[in-house]
Structures are given as C-alpha cells and as structure tokens.
Design a protein that fits this description.
Helix content: 25-40%
Number of strands: 18
Largest sheet: 10 strands, mixed
Strand content: 15-25%
Shape: globular
Structural class: alpha/beta
Radius of gyration: 33 Å
Number of helices: 13
Distance between the termini: 106 Å
Length: about 500
C-alpha cells in the first residue's frame, strides 16, 4: 500500500511541476514580444521575395522588381507543352502571383491535329494548313467560313478585322488543289501576318475529281512517322553490334512551297477560272460550312461567309458583354447572337463603326444586304429602330427576336456554339435557300435571337443585283421542291413542329 501511495504522490508532483514550467514559458514569451519597440519594428530590414532585387538606400534595404527584356521570352520561361497557346507564352511572368480570372463557362477542348475524313462523296483534309496560334475552348470565338480559290483573297481583310481564330474550308477539286496551295502560300508569306497567325485551312474535294497528288504536310500522312530503333545482335564471330532500323518515311513531311512575293498576287484580277467552273460542278456549300464549324476549337463560333466583313473588336466586346450579363450564359435556354448585314457600293470603303454605317445609309452609299434580291431574307426584327438607337460604349443586346412571321424567311448570321444544329449537306449553293432549313430548325427549337446593337457585317464592296440564269433557276426549283417534300417532313420528325414556324 505504501508503494502505491508513493507512486501517486510522485505523479501528482510531476504534473504540478510541468504546469508551472509551461506557465512560466508562456508568460516570458508574451513579455518578450511586447518589449519590442515601434522604432525597432520600423528599422527591421525586409526580406525580399524570390525574383526581387535587394537595393541599399539611405533608408535601408528595399526590394525592387528587376527590369525585364520584353522583346524576347527566355527558354526557361516558355512552357514547352504543345497544348500551350501563343497567348499563354507571351503573357508568362513569374513575378505575378494573382490568380487568373474565373472562366465564364466550362467547355471541353478539341484537337486541332490533322486528320483525314469523308462526308458522302467528299474527302476532307481536316486542319491541313494550321494557324500558328491555337486557342482553348473558352479563349475566343472562331469565325468559320468557306470558299473556292476565287474567294481566298477576302481573308486579308477578314483576318485583320476579326483578330481571332478563323476556320476555312476550301473546295479544291482536281487542279484547284494546286492553285489553292499557291494562293495560300502567297497569303501566308506575302500579305498580312494575321493569316499565318489565325487562319486554319481544311481542304475538301470530290472523289470523282481527285487532285493528281497532295502535299504530305504532316507526318501522320506517311502512315508511320519517321523514327529509328536500335537492337543488339550477335554476329557469327561472336561480336555484339548495334543494328539500326528506320521506320516510316525517311524524308519526313514536306513544307508549303516558298512564294515569290515580288510577283503579283496569284489570284489575279479578274480571277482565274476555276476547275469547278470549267466542269460546272455544284458547290457543296453546307459540307464546307459544317467542316469549318466542327473543326473550331472554341465553344463559341461565328458561321459566316468569306465576303462578309465584321465590324472591329467584336471578340473582346462580346466577352465583356457576357461578364456584365451572365444570364446570357444560361445553357438551359437556346440563344444566338445575331448581327445585321449591309452592303456598300463598289466605290466605297467598309465602315468601321455604327456611326459611319448610319451616315452611309442616310447618304445612299450603303443599303441593307440583298435589298435588291431578297430583302426579307436578311432584314432583322426592328431594323429601323436598330438604326435609330443611340450608340453606346461596348456591346449590348438591342432586341430579342424570333424567326416568326414576318421574319420567317430570315437567314440570320450569328454567333452561336458548337452545339447548334448543322446545315443540311444535301443542299448546294446553286440551289439557293441553303441556310433556310437550319433557320427552320432553330425556330422549331424556340431559339432566341439576341440582336447585337453595335456589331454588324458589311459585304465586300459592290451591291448585288438579281441576275436571271435559266440553269440556276432550274436547279433552284428542284432544290426547293426537295426541301418541301423531303427535308421538312424529316425535321418535323426530329424536332416536332410549331404553327409560327414556316419554310
């Protein structure tokens, strides 16, 4: 019993001693921290963060940001990840610690690598000639368009006004392929830098009108990329040697030909007659539209025609508008952002602002698009009010319209997404009304058309007039009958019907 009692006393004494010791340490630390004077705190020298330079001055040591050479980015600062965009590289700054702004929306990235494809009788070379700058899905808006070799010169103006990614499908049957290579080489090497920076080309040609040969611009076109393997083998005399085996095309991929920039532009004036025109081939306009749109790496796309020039600064103004009105991002509601379209006479220049456009309309130097061909096809809801509305800074939604009567023939050009209905690939450009079926589907699906106030499109200078062509007229009649007898019933099965939607 005495032993147990002694142990209890020792334990209690030990606990009491530990408590006293801890109390003394805490009180001593508190008194020490309080005893530091304000003057002592002020005189303490700063500890400079990594990347800053210590400088001795009359007031002591200070930390300054070292000057940096902004004309070049060192290799150590460049992210070598192939998925890094051009914008990522030029904005790298290890001294900035702020987090990037929260993305407006989430989306899935899309590959921009070369690949083969086929749609009906058309072979596709996707991403055949790629832009230098690549964009993630939430970084920009891709303008998607199309043309044959006679339309490619429009890319000079288009790329400068858009200042963002452009996806172009080029129709290149037979010898038109060779002409397209020459023109694109000249455009990239001899005109404006925006073409090489922003424009990606996809080639489309009919299997009944194949080019004689095509350039192997990508290693994946060779079947196997070129590489070598090494294996150790033993010779008959017992020696060990290394055997090198080559795989794939030893010459690797080819490059675009070098253009002679001292020569006149290869598209000429008037442009050379294309193989398509010589053979009177139908232009597969909706195949080209869909190829360009589906190849866009950004979530937002702007499907337009190559001769329609947009007003400047649409991309930054559009994203600024979304930040100010995040309700527009409600993905549960179908929305498109439509732009009004105009045309100017051939002796005029394309206006840069709405103020300039309104003045040209008032003076008769500009008119609504296709006014002399099909005025109702491109007249936006409340167009007169749009012209009279005061011009404000930035971009906003002027009016929310529908594709209902009297706008049931409206063929809107709009900023949409990769998820919107595609164009019917059975329709040709010569048959006319090639966008009407998509507009009808958008109406049945109850899309809202958010008409933008300060953004617009202007056709390449030159007012179009109605020219009667008996061959085109016959093709148009057949296509219109096919739309009504076949495509409309199919769309009703797919999407249902609405009494206010007409085609």
């Amino acid at each position: 019993m005495s032993i147990i009692w002694t142990r209890r006393v020792i334990i209690k004494a030990s606990l009491l001693f530990n408590f006293c010791a801890l109390t003394y340490v805490a009180l001593h630390a508190s008194n020490t921290s309080i005893s530091v004077s304000d003057s002592e705190l002020k005189s303490s020298e700063p500890v400079c963060p990594v990347g800053y330079t210590e400088t001795l001055t009359s007031n002591g040591k200070t930390c300054t940001i070292p000057e940096r050479n902004t004309d070049a980015v060192s290799e150590a600062e460049v992210d070598t990840d192939p998925n890094t965009t051009y914008q990522d590289v030029v904005s790298i700054d290890p001294l900035v610690t702020e987090k990037p702004p929260t993305p407006l929306f989430t989306c899935e990235g899309k590959s921009s690598e070369f690949r083969y494809g086929q749609r009906g009788s058309q072979y596709i070379l996707y991403n055949y000639i790629r832009a230098k700058r690549q964009f993630k899905c939430d970084e920009s808006i891709t303008l998607t368009t199309h043309g044959d070799t006679s339309f490619l010169d429009n890319l000079v103006v288009l790329s400068q006004r858009w200042q963002g990614p452009i996806s172009v499908s080029v129709y290149v049957p037979s010898s038109d392929y060779d002409d397209a290579i020459k023109i694109i080489s000249y455009l990239r090497q001899c005109t404006v830098p925006e073409i090489e920076d922003f424009v990606t080309f996809h080639f489309v040609f009919d299997n009944r009108h194949m080019p004689k040969s095509i350039l192997k611009l990508h290693t994946t076109q060779q079947g196997l990329p070129y590489f070598q393997s090494q294996t150790k083998v033993r010779t008959s005399d017992g020696k060990t040697i290394v055997k090198v085996t080559y795989h794939g095309d030893k010459n690797g991929k080819t490059e675009l030909p070098t253009a002679n920039c001292s020569l006149p532009a290869p598209w000429g004036s008037p442009p050379k007659q294309t193989y398509r025109n010589q053979k009177k081939l139908l232009y597969p306009v909706n195949v080209l539209r869909n190829v360009a749109r589906e190849s866009a790496t950004t979530y937002y796309v702007f499907a337009s025609d190559s001769e329609l020039y947009p007003s400047p600064n649409i991309i930054p103004q559009f994203f600024d508008m979304l930040r100010r009105n995040e309700s527009y991002l409600n993905l549960g509601k179908h929305r498109l952002f439509a732009l009004p379209i105009f045309e100017v006479y051939s002796n005029q220049t394309v206006p840069d602002s709405k103020q300039e456009l309104v003045k040209m309309l008032e003076s008769g130097m500009a008119i609504p698009f296709h006014k002399k061909i099909c005025a109702s096809c491109h007249s936006i809801p409340r167009q007169k009010e749009w012209l009279k509305a005061p011009v404000k800074e930035g971009l906003s939604v002027f009016h929310v319209g529908k594709r209902h009567k009297p706008h049931h023939n409206w063929e809107p050009i709009f900023i949409g997404t990769r998820e919107d209905p595609l164009y019917d690939e059975r329709l040709s450009w010569e048959g006319r009304r090639d966008k009407m079926t998509q507009g009808y589907a958008l109406c049945i699906l109850d899309y809202d058309f958010m008409i933008l106030d300060n953004a617009f499109l202007v056709h390449r200078p030159g007012v179009k007039v109605n020219k009667k062509d008996p061959v085109i007229g016959l093709i148009s009649q057949k296509q219109n009958a096919y739309i009504k007898s076949t495509i409309v019933p199919e769309l009703k099965v797919l999407y249902g019907s609405r009494p206010e939607c007409w085609l």
